[in-house]
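Private note to self, pasted from the team thread so I don't lose it. Backbone tokens:
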């Protein structure tokens, strides 16, 4: 596990929001030096009308915001780590890692 997250409760179905931190032996949530980014994950389920037509896999979009300037991880590696975090942490995700699209937003 490379990252650990604090989930921010959302009132919307299929939307998850986390503050992501680098995982260390000592968990210091809120430590600015370990802060990686804000992550919003949106899962799009297949409309039941299309399930009979062979489309049976949901897709997801992970939006990375407020990426820390202290992070020295190349974007390609960061994308893999974010996908891994999503697969491990979000309950009942039930989708392939290849169906997750990572989008890097502009820092606010």
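Design output:
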């Amino acid at each position: 596990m490379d990252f650990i997250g604090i989930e921010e409760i959302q009132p919307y179905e299929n939307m998850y929001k986390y503050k992501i931190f680098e995982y260390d032996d000592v968990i210091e949530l809120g430590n600015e030096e370990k802060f990686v980014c804000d992550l919003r994950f949106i899962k799009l389920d297949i409309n039941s009308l299309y399930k009979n037509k062979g489309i049976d896999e949901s897709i997801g979009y992970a939006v990375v915001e407020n990426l820390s300037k202290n992070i020295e991880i190349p974007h390609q590696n960061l994308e893999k780590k974010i996908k891994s975090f999503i697969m491990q942490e979000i309950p009942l995700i039930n989708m392939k890692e290849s169906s997750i699209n990572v989008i890097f937003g502009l820092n606010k």
